[in-house]
Amino acid sequence: MGAIAAVSIFSCGSGATEAGEEHAGHNHESKDPSQMQSASGRVYFANLNNGDTVSNPVAIEFGVEGMTVRPAGELTPGTGHHHLLIGSDSIATGDVVPANEKHIHYGKGQTADTLDLPLGKTKIALQFADGAHASYGSKLSASIEVFVK
């Protein structure tokens, strides 16, 4: 299975959704950064380091400190969920994380995934966002480069 096919499914709330579909039941509008809930802590790759050499399928574990992982749709202060960005860095504070094969949502509160990544040097980033997928910005993002062989 190619990289695009392997990462074209993502989770948001209940049930898997094809990339590009709307997430019924919750707001997907960007927020003014000053209206975002306060966020503190950090996100990190729990099992990968910058420069690691990996083979497909790649197991990725997501970590967060200072925030609590909760499913999409819940807008509780101090909470949110993970998104994996393939080939890019953080999403600006308040911007909604896109839903496509390069921006994978873990809206059920997942903290790990196994997927195929593009071969060669690949940048991956974690982005923590609130229950409406509004990004907490670079302060709750982490990116690394891995070499996929």
Order of helices and strands: HEEEEEEEEEEE
Q: Whole-number average pLDDT?
A: 83
CATH superfamily: Immunoglobulins
Name of the CATH class: Mainly Beta
The computed structural class is: mainly beta
Q: Count up the helices.
A: 1
The appropriate CATH architecture is Sandwich
CATH topology: Immunoglobulin-like
Helix content: under 10%
Q: How many separate domains?
A: 1
Large-scale geometry = elongated
Largest β sheet strand count, sense and barrel closure = 6 strands, mixed
Termini separation (Å)? 15 Å
Radius of gyration: 14 Å
Number of β-strand runs = 11
Strand content: 35-45%
Uncertain ranges: 1-27
In short:
The chain is mainly beta and 149 residues long.
Can you describe what's shown?
- This protein is mainly β and 149 residues long.
- The chain has one domain (3-19, 40-148): Immunoglobulins (Immunoglobulin-like), CATH 2.60.40.10.
- It is 3% helix and 37% strand.
- It has one helix and eleven strands.
- The protein has one helix at residues 3-6, and strands at residues 9-11, 16-18, 42-45, 53-54, 58-65, 68-69, 79-86, 103-105, 112-115, 120-129, 141-148.
- The strands form three sheets. Strands 4, 6, 7, 8, 10 and 11 form a six-stranded mixed β-sheet that branches.
- The radius of gyration is 14 Å and the shape is elongated.
- Mean pLDDT is 83; it is low at 1-27.
